[in-house]
Each structure stands twice: as C-alpha cells, then as structure tokens.
Amino acid sequence: MSSETSTVTSEPPPTTADTELTLRLPGESQKSEAKSTKRRFSDLTDLKLGGNDESDTECSVVTRSTPAKERVVGWPPVRSHRKNMMKKDCKYVKVAVDGAPYLRKVDLELYSGYQQLLCGFEHLFSCFTIRNVLNERKLMDPVNGMEYVPTYEDKEGDWMLVGDVPWMMFVESCKRIRLMKNSEAVNGSELLEKC
Amino acid sequence: MTYSFPEEVLEHVFSFLTSQNDRNAASLVCRTWYEMERWCRKRIFVGNCYAVNPRVLIRRFPEVKAVELKGKPHFADFNLVPEGWGGFVYPWIVEFARVYPWLEEIRLKRMVVTDECLEIVSKAFRNFKVLILSSCEGFSTDGLAAVAANCRNLRVLDLRECEVEELSGHWLSHFPDSFTSLESLNIACLSLEVSFSALERLVSRSPNLKTLRLNRTVPLEKISKLLQRAPQLADFGTGAYSAEIRPDVYSSLQEAFSGCKKLKSLSGFWDVVPAYLPAVFSVCSQLTYLNLSYATTQSPDLIKVISQCHNLQRLVVLDYIEDMGLDTVAVTCKDLRELVVFPSDPFVADANVLLTEEGLVSVSQGCSKLQSVLYFCRQMSNSALISISKNRPNLTCFRLCILEPRAPDYLTFEPLDVGFGSIVENCKELTRLSMSGLLTDRVFEYIGKHAKKLDMLSVAFAGDSDLGLHHVLSGCESLRKLEIRDCPFGDKALLANASKLLTMRSLWMSSCFVSFGACKLLGQKMPGLNVEVIDERENLNLLPENAPVEKVYIYRTVSGQRLDMPDFVRIMGKDKNGVYNLSLCDKGL
What region holds the F-box domain (chain B) (predicted)? Predict the structure, then answer.
C-alpha cells in the first residue's frame, strides 16, 4: 500500500490560522537532493530509544576523508552529561498544537532522543499522553480522544513526520514543530491499519 | 593448649582495618576471624551489583552502616549500554530497609534509582546521613523532595552528573526549618531553577556546610549573598558566571570570595564573562582543586586565573587552555597531581584550538607530582609519549584520547605502539590506562609484558588479531576491568583465557568479533561467570552460531543469572539452576 492513494492532493489548499505550511505528498517535490531519505508514511519502522544515530556495528568505522564528520556512537568518550551541559546554543523551536490558541517553545538540545522529546510534550501540554500505535509514536488527548501526530518543518521547508531521521539530524534540521491532529495527517490510522 | 584473643580484642584490632581488601584477607584466616570480622564490618563496597545477591550480603554482614554499589558498566557513560539494561537499586534498598534500620550512608554509581527508592531511603533509616548518587538516573525532583522532607539528620546530598526528571525546583523548600545538619550539597547537574530564598535560608541555618555546588540557574549577582552566609565553605561551585558588567556586583563578589578563607575547591563557571574572573583571584592561592571545564573562555583569561594557583593539585579544564596555558600550569602548579583536559568541540575534525601533545609534555616536565592524566587532543607522537613516560614514571593513571580513531603518530605516521609501550614500561605503578590512536597487536604485547599493576584498561579501535587480547589477558596479573570496543578480537583469545575472567570484575567487548557460539560455550563452561550478550537486533535466533554479537558483558558472580534483564540481554549457557531469585523484589519500576 502506498500513501499516494491518500486524499491529500499535490496542491493542497493553505491551511487555516497560524501556520504557513503547505502539505506535500510524501516523496513528491521539485527538489532532487535528499528526497530519498525522506520516508513515506507507509514505510514505518521502529524508532530506537535514546536516539542513537549509528547503532549498526558495521557503520562504526569513521572514514577520515569525510569532511562532514560521521559520528560514531560513544566516540569520542565524552559523557552526554558534559555534552549537554556544554551546549551554549540552545535550539529553541516553536511547537504548535492544532486547536491551541498559542504556541510553546522547546529547547531541542535538552533532549537526547525522540522518546524524551515526546515526554517533554507530555509535560508541556499536560493534556497529552504518549501513545505507541503500530510502531509510531503519537500523542493523545484522553479527554477528547484526539490523536496528534508530531510533525516538523525542516530546513527545506517540508513538513516531515517526527522520528524518521537520526535524532541529531532532526535537531539540526528542525525549524519548528506542529502537533497535527490525526485527521489532517495522511488519513492517519485508517491507512495504517490497512498495512 | 589453645590461645585465642578475647572477642573484644579482636574487634578492636579489626576496627583499624578500613580497607575492604584487608578485611577480606583477615576474614580468610580462620573461622573465628571470619565470624568476628563479619559482625563488625560497617562499610560495604560492591563494585558490580550483579556480582552478589543482596540477601547473601545481608546474611553475612548484619551491622552495616555504609553501602557503596556500582551498576552499569563504564561504557554506559558513552551511550554504549542500551536503556533498560539494568542496574536497578530497588531490590537492594528493599533489603536494606528490612535489615539495616541504622544504615547511614548510601553511595551509588551508574544505577537506576526510582522515586520510590528515595522515599524508602528517606523513611526507613532514622539516622540517614549521606546520599551520593553518581551518574544515576530514574528519579525525579519528587524523590529529592522526599529526601529533603524526611531525612532529619542528612549531612550530604550529592547528585553528581545525574539525570533527574525535573518537575519543579520546589523540592529544595522541603527541607524543614529545623533541619540544620547539612554539610554538603551538590546540585550542579540540575537545570531547573530552585527557589533562591529557600536556598539562602538553608545555607544560613547550616553552620557545618562545607561543600556547596550550585546549578547553572543561580545568577552571579546572588552568589555574594550565599558566600557571605557561608564563609566557612571549603568547596564551592558557582552557577552561570555571567552578568552585566556592573562595578557594584563585581566588588561585592570579590569581597565575598575574599571572605572565604577556607575555600580550597572551586568549580561551576558556566557561560563565563571574563571580566568577572578576577573576582576569584583572592582565593586562587588557596585552591587545591579548580574545575574550569565549563568555562568557555579563551586561554589568556584562563591563564590569568591559573597563574595564581600555586597550590593547585587537581585541574580540570577545556582545551581552550591550549599549549601556552599548559606551559603556565607547568611553571605555576608545582604540586599538581591530576590534570584533565576536555575537548571543547569534539566533533569537529579540524583543531579549533592550539592544544597539541606539547602541552601535556610540558606539564609532565614541570609537575613532578603528576600522577593522573585525562587528556583529549588531536595529535600525538611516539616521541611525546616516550618523553612523558620518562618525565613521569610515577604516573598511576594515564588516559589519552586522540579524537580521530586510529590516528597514527602525526610525525612518522607509524602506530603509537612504541609510545604507549614506553608508558607501561616506565610507569611501573600504572593502575589505569586508556589508549587511542593507531595501535597494533604490538602495543598489547608491551602491556602484557610490563603492565603488572594495571587494574583497568580501556581500548578502542586497536589491534590486529586475537593475539592482542591474548597478550593482555595472559600477561596483566592485576587486571580487573577490561573494556574494549571496535577491535578485531574474537573467540580464540577469550576462550583460551576463560579462567582469567574469574579473577576480574568484568570484561566488556562491543563491536568486536565474538560469536554467539563462543558466548554460549563460555557461559556453559564457567558457572562463575555471567556472559551477557547485549544485542538489539531482531531475529537473533535466526543468526548462525558464528555470527558476531553486538556487545558482550562478562562478569564474575556468586549469584547466578539475574532475572531483571530486558529482552535484548541474554545470559548465555545457563540452565535453570543458575537462577538468582529476584522475583520477590522486582525492580520497582
């Protein structure tokens, strides 16, 4: 099954209220580069806890020639506590929740992985609980039963599902976050349950 | 005719034995001494919480006042141990609460501590005095609130580099007004603001307060107030060391510091504004410990401070200090015992600072008492290492991290075997070694041959074959802890030296070539070892026996298998009889 059968068209109408985002079909874009790394909603895989970027042992060797240094897990041996404490640059991004009158801001540098980020959302928006559905992490408001899918706008202006790329890459490329009501996402759980 | 000392005499004699090793030796002399010793042992140290069952411990030692436990392997500090692996202190706390109502001190390192654990601690031990949590996690500020509220006689609350779920800063206000026994408070790892007025009142009513390490959120302008209330402080950690440049703030800060005649340790210094550094000049000559490793300020500013620290024994600093700053250290700090230099920008390939091997050589030349080194740098040479080893044969701890894995001698492009070989050959008292750079099996040959007092060895991206591992396991007589990552070591050396593993606390190997089959065999053959395969891949059962495991952690134990393992941990080769019954005390999560 593929997400092209979704009802989101390639020229979505502008969404209401505060956001300037435009939804595009997953995988569909004019830009060529890095699109292959953007995953479709259909290709869900497990998120790893703790946000380890390169957990494959086969990838643990660093090639010296790469200018953009590939990070090896746990190297150099500096405690994450120190790494976190050393952060001078906070990475504050806006977090919008569909239906909420105002936005919040979170410092992505404070979190070490996706699970911690979702926990942060739980605290920030105390109405939410984390719900793990079909390997995908969502937030749920138990009062009204609404599900919210965490999405983010990356440096290229695309709206992506939170959780696809390694955590550090996400922190670097995330410009802002939107907790999208599930009905707005690619026909959410209905499609997923068909997988 | 038998002569024997009366019990009271034996007990008195044993009271002079403080080292656990000495007490262990005494307890082996004869049954009487064993019995005598176990009744009067007050302090317990368990280096691996899975090496022994809490029930066994309390059965042997009924009168314990202080316990120290360590949980996760050291490489957990670098995210190599997946979350949920273990190290839960709950079952221990439950047993202690049951049997040691007079327990006074708990020290934990790399353990999972829940709020429930802290609540039990706060209520079960009437005379509880010391809580030191080092690199622990799993608790929140609610747990801290319980400790604050209930531990009437608390003296030490030290949260060293813990990961705390911070729900609020109000926990500090839970110390009652009647609480006056505080001697040491370290909250440097917390990121939420605590109520300053609560902190100030707490400091004011703690006449015995010697150590106060604040967190980043305590503003510089308010530090003077605290120091004025506690001029007896010996160990102080500032918060963020930045503020608008204001003469009144500066002068009260300077005055406050100069009032601290007993101050010997200084730390903190986040976000340093250099203009405020001279405020500490008056105490520099008193200092024996200075930690500027969060001070992201350049070498000249650091030098201005360090050049006045003539009595410094331990220095922790960022590589912003540069070679020039280390030259100053070499000239000024003649009493230096320990040097730690952390990297400011570890993930950048090119050097952002002028710190090379020369800085370390300089300190090794100038500081004759230097014993312990942890040094992060980007280049090293065999000749530098040889110089260091000849300058400082009294080194006991040498940890060198060249940021680029497998970096060779930058002058000759050769491996650094000879350099590290020189270290182990000349530094005959070396107990701890961490290596990096390009290293072949040869360096392990040197280590096996010379490092007879080596207790702990850390190896990464080194060696060519099993022979390397074999040299270490067969040659290092005193080795107790060995941790290896990304080395081409496999089954042969491990199986050939299986019995060596019983003389060690633990062996960690990750991203090496150790196979499932070998782990199973080792586990079967050695009932005294737990061979833990830590592997997060799915469908492990489908992998062949000769496939390498992701990680293996092997440790000696008298408790058999543990029952609190997550699904990515398998203890190999054990049958049901090797089971350690944790079922009655679950992990409390």
Answer: 5-46
Chain A residue nearest residue B511, CA to CA: A57
Closest CA to B83 of B106, B110, B50, B63: B110
Domain parsing of chain B, residue ranges: 42-237
CA distances from B454 to B113, B134, B449 (A): 32, 24, 11
Q: Between chains, do A76 and B536 touch, taking CB under 8 Å as contact?
A: no
Q: Give the separation between CA B80 and CA B379, rounded to whole angstroms.
A: 25
State whether CATH 3.40.50.620 applies to domain B42-237.
no
Q: Which residues of A touch B (CB under 8 A)?
A: 48-50, 52, 55, 57, 60-62, 64, 67, 69, 71-82, 85-86, 88, 110, 123
Give B324→chain A minimum CA distance, Å.
23
Mean pLDDT by 10 residues, chain B (589 residues): 73 91 94 92 96 95 97 96 96 97 98 98 97 97 97 97 91 96 96 92 97 95 95 96 91 97 96 93 98 93 96 97 97 98 89 94 98 98 98 98 97 98 98 98 98 98 97 98 97 97 98 96 95 91 91 95 92 67 38
Asked if B343 lies within 8 A of A69 by C-beta distance, the reply is no
Alpha-carbon gap, residue A89 to B155, rounded angstroms: 36
CB neighbour class for B70 (10 Å; exposed up to 12, middle 13-18, buried from 19):
buried
Interface with chain A: mutation pick from B74, B77, B79, highest number of A CBs within 10 Å? B79
Separation CA B209–CA B26 (nearest Å): 37
Kindly list the residues from chain A whose CB atom is less than 8 angstroms away from the CB atom of residue B75.
74
